[in-house]
Design goal:
The complex is a heterodimer. Chain A is mostly helical. Helices cover about 70% and strands about 5% of the residues of chain A. Chain A has one domain: ABC transporter involved in vitamin B12 uptake, BtuC, CATH 1.10.3470. Chain A has a two-stranded antiparallel sheet with strand order 1-2. In chain A, helix 2 crosses helix 8. Chain A is globular and about 60 Å long. In chain B, helix 8 packs across helix 10. The C terminus of chain B is likely disordered. Chain B has a single domain, classed as ABC transporter involved in vitamin B12 uptake, BtuC, CATH 1.10.3470. The chains are: A mainly alpha, B mainly alpha. The interface between A and B is large, with 50 and 49 residues.
Chain lengths: ~290, ~325
């Protein structure tokens, strides 16, 4: 294996890892703020993909142009789900919490199958079709653009949390609900915001992926597993942790698939996850 | 167990015993067998998920272990699937020790997520392993072999009564566990883990005990499935959706109760079959919509399950029928 090939594989891993990270950022936001694991998170991604697909199929609008709209739609969906359903299980037993979002996952998959058929679909010719080559390395343009878009979105979320009053309020709620409430922060609003933002992150990731990834009702299942792994590796609730874990897992997956057998790359990633939660239950980058 | 509960169980047993004699249509018998098998899986899951409160979403791995071990022993060595069932339960119990070791370090959501990972790993490994049939799976020869051979093609009745027997056995195990000291500790671990630990209860040991029993029972259900369908592959015996179904039967009926998984399985299977008949092959996805919607509604509005509806009418709801006498607390 030449150094160039290794570099090519490594960078490919980083490219997909950055998209994984964006999905996980959404999941970790929800988790960090209200201690609920959203099993339907992959379905937000799936819906983002279909939003991009239909924008293209019906109006010939490129997934990249409809991206802001997709983000808004998913934000609204996430916030609405919180108001309608999640709000009622905030203090419910864990089993109810798990199965409420699990039920949503099955419901959305069923709806997608029913409304849009279980077929594999793809966005035809996106503006980002083609290849980029530099220094003898070659990457698909859609992959590069998706990775760039994912980094920008992650950075925007990071900036929002760090530099705006609303973001600070969200972080305060995540750190200590009671104290935040005493400071006049409305926890209900913050929870709805977390669900909106979380869904929007997954939706944007879906829209970015739609330029090169097949679109089908169960597409979320792989991504949710990877997102679980990232959230666990990065430390539950940590946006920065999820980001670095995304890059790590992307590289492990692609390099592992290259050296071993692509069929087993998920086994590798999930084993890494089990190993980490076994040795460090608080996550690789999480604080004890 | 109250007098009333005893009467209900007796009546249910009578109905179950006589049902196939009254309803002779093969489709009805088949639906009834599905109900019994789903109930048995739910009972198995409930021992760990309901009584000990450790939500596993990877139980298909244990179910699949039972299906694969008995099938492999039967195909490669010509062993009777009944021996395979025992071997499968053993392998599954061993696997559960292996899984429990890292996973029981985790609590709540984290445990559930880790078990999904375990289930997915097992499915992916079997999918890619030629010796285990890979993605294609195994067919068992369809020829009448009698009771010892565990293949019946003249009638579905033997499968019905075997499924009923296995369910009865699983309920018996569940009942015995619930009223034993272990059962008492399990409920303590579920409701007050810190208090239980401070009283010197080894959390991991009792969780592990529950998981061994639960996984062995799940594996026995897997062997029955393999012998009834005479075909197994990773999709049908190892998928996460199967794990969810096991949990769902218990949750829908009433978590941590003896009868819960049975009630849940009957309702769940009826809904599945009804939506399959109503929407047929054309409306693929509608069954999932009904299914998913129902899960959300139950999780949000009726966390105590269907049995909880009846309990609340007769005064304060009891989370789990505390069969262990109070004096065992000492």
């Amino acid at each position: 294996m030449t150094a160039q090939l290794l570099l090519q594989t490594l960078l490919s891993g980083i490219l997909i890892g950055l998209v994984y990270a964006l999905v996980a950022v959404g999941l970790t936001l929800i988790f960090g703020v209200m201690d609920i694991v959203n099993f339907a998170h992959g379905e937000f991604l799936m819906l983002g993909m279909y939003a991009a697909f239909w924008g293209f199929a019906l109006w010939k609008l490129d997934p990249l142009f409809t991206l802001p709209l997709t983000a808004l739609l998913l934000f609204a969906l996430g916030a609405a789900l919180y108001r309608l359903i999640i709000r009622r299980i905030t203090d419910a037993p864990m089993l109810s919490q798990i199965f409420a979002t699990f039920g949503l996952m099955i419901l959305f998959r069923g709806l997608a199958q029913y409304l849009w058929k279980p077929d594999f679909r793809s966005v035809g010719e996106s503006v980002v079709a083609g290849k980029v080559a530099f220094a003898g390395l070659q990457f698909g343009l859609p992959q590069v653009v998706a990775a760039l878009g994912a980094v920008l979105t992650t950075a925007a979320v990071w900036w929002f949390l760090r530099s705006t009053r609303l973001g600070a309020a969200l972080e305060a709620t995540a750190a200590d609900k009671e104290a935040a409430a005493l400071m006049g922060i409305d926890a209900q609003k913050m929870f709805a915001l977390a669900w909106g933002l979380g869904a929007a992150c997954a939706g944007v990731a879906g829209a970015l992926l739609s330029t090169y990834y097949p679109i089908f009702p169960e597409v979320g299942s792989t991504f949710i597993l990877v997102a679980f792994v990232l959230v666990a590796l990065g430390g539950f609730g940590s946006v920065a942790g999820a980001f670095w874990a995304g890059i790590l897992v992307g590289v492990v997956e692609v390099v592992g698939g290259f050296l071993w057998d692509p069929a087993y790359k998920m086994v590798l990633v999930l084993s890494l996850y089990l190993l980490v939660v076994w040795l460090r239950p608080q996550g690789l980058l999480g604080k004890a | 167990m109250s007098r009333r509960a005893k009467l209900v169980w007796l009546a249910a047993a009578l109905v179950a015993l006589l049902f196939p004699l009254v309803a002779a249509r093969p489709t009805w018998q088949n639906t009834a067998i599905l109900m019994l098998m789903t109930a048995q899986m739910g009972v198995a899951w409930n021992i760990l998920g309901g009584y000990a409160g450790q939500v596993s979403l990877g139980h298909a791995a244990f179910f699949g272990a039972g299906a694969y071990v008995s099938t492999l022993l039967s195909i490669k060595l010509g062993l009777s699937p009944w021996l395979g069932m025992v071997a499968g339960a053993g392998v599954s119990a061993g696997l559960s020790l292996l899984v429990g070791w890292p996973c029981f370090r985790l609590k709540g959501h984290y445990f559930a997520m880790a078990t999904i990972a375990v289930g997915e790993i097992v499915q992916a490994v079997v999918n890619g392993w030629e010796f285990l049939g890979g993605a294609v799976g195994f067919y068992l020869p369809l020829q009448e072999k009698g009771f010892w051979g565990f293949v019946f093609n003249r009638s579905k009745l033997p499968y019905y009564y075997i499924a009923l027997g296995l369910l009865a056995f699983s309920l018996l195990v569940n009942w015995a566990v619930a009223r034993s000291r272990t059962g008492y500790y399990l409920r303590a671990i579920k409701d007050e883990p810190d208090a239980a630990r401070s009283l010197g209860v080894s959390l991991t040991r009792y969780k592990q005990t529950a998981m061994v029993i639960s996984s062995a029972l799940a594996a026995m259900g897997g062997t029955l499935y393999a012998q009834k369908e005479l075909f197994i592959d990773p999709g049908s015996t190892l998928s996460t959706s199967l794990s969810i179904k096991m949990a769902l039967a218990a949750i829908m009926g009433g978590v941590g109760t003896l009868a819960g998984p049975v009630v849940g399985a009957v309702v769940l299977t009826a809904i599945e079959e009804a939506s399959r008949v109503a929407f047929g092959g054309t409306g693929r996805g509608t069954d999932l919509v009904v299914y998913g919607g129902l899960i959300v509604v139950i999780a949000v509005f009726q966390p105590a399950g269907i049995l909880g509806l009846f309990a609340s009418r007769r005064g304060p709801a009891r989370a789990a029928p505390a069969e262990a006498p109070a004096k065992e607390a000492a």
